[in-house]
Design a protein that fits this description.
Length: 332
């Protein structure tokens, strides 16, 4: 069993959904040395299924895992070359296979280093750190009221500001645990608003942190022609120059009640990251929380999910892979 990786210092982007993770991935992907494909979800999808693949030192098991990853990564452009990914896998565990898959992608782009952006991966930081102890981690944070207003319009995610605030708070609490474990040298906190205020300064800071020469091409991320299959609103924002006024929109987009609800849940985290809090002692009653969690939000989610055709397609692909695994129907 070999124990080497193609890239032992990849760059992982952590951040709650709609916090600028897509923007940051496109900026990094514009660097001549770094490839950052569309979000992969490889850890949150395949870690729970890993037991079904058996010993990954066996060729057939690795091939099956790569084949299934290829199916899950149907949004990547270009698609994963299964043979290239198999040949690029030098370490025979889940981390080595993921490295083989993304390294083969980055090699096809003519780049030597890869990055990865999947918001849900923050909850797998222990596994990622175990597999890539020399990785660099960038955590991007955005005012939770702004990220939640954007998330509310997305095809996925919570659909009430109480639940959005809970999710944002959960992300930041997990990041706090991660940062305490890893130390400051290998994780960079950057605010979305700081990128808006001075993109070049923020980009230079990021390059210094990850040990890469600054490239002016990173400022032209919007000219990148690699397809990015996000929803239309997010895609529109990524294909034009940085919107420097895209901050504090919550002041006009959220009602006073929405702001109160959000701050009752995550006011502490807003303050920790330097964001202004309007309602210093906001608190919801137990009855209000019960009504939101068990009556209002479930109905909003059902309505949203019924319209989320892409989410249904992605879910069906995952279900198909899972059922085939449980039935032992190998193919590659």
């Amino acid at each position: 069993m070999t124990s080497s990786l193609n890239c032992n210092n990849p760059v992982f982007i952590f951040g709650c959904a709609r916090s600028g993770t897509s923007l940051l991935s496109r900026i990094l992907n514009s660097h001549p040395n770094i490839a950052v494909p569309y979000e992969s979800h490889l850890y949150n999808v395949f870690m729970p299924w890993l037991k079904y693949y058996g010993d990954l030192s066996e060729d057939k098991n690795r091939r099956q895992l790569i084949c299934d990853m290829h199916d899950i990564l149907h949004d990547w452009s270009p698609r994963v070359d299964k043979d290239a990914a198999f040949n690029a896998t030098k370490q025979y565990d889940i981390h080595g296979v993921i490295d083989g898959v993304i390294s083969s992608y980055s090699t096809a782009q003519g780049k030597k280093r890869w990055g990865e952006k999947s918001p849900w991966h923050v909850f797998y930081w222990k596994e990622i750190l175990e597999g890539f102890p020399n990785a660099k981690f960038i955590h991007i944070v955005r005012d939770g009221r702004d990220s939640s207003a954007s998330w509310m319009q997305a095809r996925f995610g919570p659909k009430h500001y109480y639940m959005l605030a809970k999710r944002w708070k959960e992300y930041l609490e997990t990041v706090a645990e991660f940062k305490q474990a890893i130390g400051k040298d290998n994780v960079l906190d950057i605010r979305y608003e700081d990128i808006l205020a001075d993109q070049e300064a923020a980009t230079r800071k990021i390059c210094g942190f990850i040990g890469e020469e600054y490239s002016i091409e990173m400022l032209d991320f919007h000219k990148n022609k690699t397809p990015y299959p996000t929803d239309n609103r997010n895609l529109e924002n990524l294909t034009k120059p940085l919107m420097t006024d895209n901050a504090q929109k919550w002041r006009k987009n959220l009602s006073d009640r929405d702001i109160y609800i959000f701050e009752s849940v995550a006011g502490k985290q807003l303050k920790e990251y330097g964001y202004e809090v309007i309602n210093q002692s906001a608190k919801l009653s137990v009855l209000n929380i019960f009504i939101i969690r068990y009556l209002i939000h479930p109905l909003l989610r059902i309505r949203s999910m019924s319209k989320n055709i892409k989410g249904q397609i992605d879910g069906s692909k995952k279900l198909f892979v899972y059922l085939r695994l449980r039935l032992g129907l190998w193919r590659f």
